[in-house]
């Protein structure tokens, strides 16, 4: 479904991604683990067209999107939930959800149905629908960010550190939603520093170190890998 080949990204003269190769099959959850500064966010943002690529190609559902603009990539079926959430803090919860559907061409009635579905997934967002998004708690903001991404009806979601800063209860809730999305056929590329959690929910994983993929395999293989255990699983 997604094929990233020889991705090279620079920030001025900093070579942030050095020939990254990643594939994601339809229906999979694939995770990308790595330390701070390894290039995880850069990988997601260059796939979604936010950061320009110096070299390499990104193919999505057979279509070359290497040079496609970010908003067109969203329209093509890829949604990103950015690190730090980036919701519109000055708008209500409901308006944030509506904006998530800006690339969707459908009747208002059907878009309202999508909003109802988001409220079913995250009942707290219904309770808070008229509240300014900036006044939500961190966990609620993460739910809103995911809800907004789902509003674009993506086939692939790029999720950047959904557990960051959240209490165990919220983390569990967010990961339940990720599992539900997978059951509904949505494909997910997940970035997580909580490698235990990421490997427990994903089918396959890649380990990124200073801009290079150093290991890949099924999540079960990586969970049992000695060097992965030592470096990322606290064992
Ligand atoms: N806008 C930028 N300008 C210059 N350098 C940047 C920029 N964004 C990221 N970098 C650098 O690129 C490297 C990769 O950063 P990136 O944010 O992709 O890491 P990450 O794996 O997501 O880390 P974290 O776990 O801390 O979120 C880092 O060394 C970072 O300092
Ligand atoms: Mg990051």
User: Number of folding domains?
Assistant: 2
Cofactors, ions and other ligands in the entry: adenosine-5'-triphosphate, magnesium ion
Total of helices: 10
Secondary structure: number of strands: 10
Nearest-integer average pLDDT: 94
Give the helix proportion (percent range).
25-40%
- Which architecture of the largest domain does the CATH hierarchy give at level 2? 3-Layer(aba) Sandwich
% residues in beta strands: 25-35%
Write down the Rg.
17 Å
How far is it from the N-terminal to the C-terminal residue, by CA? 34 Å
In the CATH scheme, what's the topology name of the largest domain? Answer: Rossmann fold
- In order across it, which strands form the biggest sheet? 6-7-8-3-9-10
Specify the overall morphology: globular
What about the largest sheet? Answer: 6 strands, mixed
CATH superfamily of the largest domain: P-loop containing nucleotide triphosphate hydrolases
What top-tier CATH class of the largest domain fits best?
A: Alpha Beta
> H/E order of the elements?
EEEHEEHEHHHHEHEHEEHH
The secondary structure category is alpha/beta
Low-pLDDT runs = none
Q: Can I get a quick summary?
A:
With 235 residues, this protein is an alpha/beta fold. It has helices spanning 40-47, 70-75, 93-100, 108-121, 123-127, 138-151, 168-183, 195-201, 219-223, 226-232, and strands at residues 2-11, 14-24, 29-33, 55-60, 63-64, 78-81, 156-160, 187-191, 204-209, 212-218. The protein folds into two domains: 1-77 and 156-235, Rossmann fold, CATH 3.40.50; 87-153, no CATH class.
């Amino acid at each position: 479904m997604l094929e990233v080949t020889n991705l090279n990204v620079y920030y001025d003269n900093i070579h942030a991604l050095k020939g990254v190769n990643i594939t994601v099959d339809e229906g999979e959850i694939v995770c990308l683990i790595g330390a701070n500064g390894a290039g995880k966010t850069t990988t997601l943002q260059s796939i979604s067209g936010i950061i320009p690529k110096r070299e390499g190609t990104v193919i999505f559902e057979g279509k070359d999107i290497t040079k496609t603009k970010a908003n067109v990539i969203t329209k093509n079926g890829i949604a990103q939930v950015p690190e730090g959430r980036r919701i519109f803090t000055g708008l209500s919860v409901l308006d944030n959800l509506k904006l998530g559907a800006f690339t969707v061409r459908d009747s208002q009635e059907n878009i309202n149905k999508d909003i109802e579905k988001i409220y079913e997934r995250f009942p707290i967002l219904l309770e808070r629908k008229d509240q300014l998004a900036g006044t939500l708690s961190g966990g609620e903001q993460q739910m809103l960010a995911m809800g907004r991404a789902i509003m674009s009806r993506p086939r692939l979601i790029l999720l950047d550190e959904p557990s960051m800063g959240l209490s165990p209860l919220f983390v569990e809730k967010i990961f339940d939603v990720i599992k539900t999305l997978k059951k509904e056929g949505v494909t997910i590329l997940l970035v997580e520093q909580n490698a235990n959690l990421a490997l427990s929910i994903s089918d396959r994983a890649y380990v990124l170190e200073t801009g290079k993929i150093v290991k890949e395999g099924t999540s079960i293989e990586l969970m049992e890998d000695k060097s992965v255990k030592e470096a990322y699983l606290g064992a």
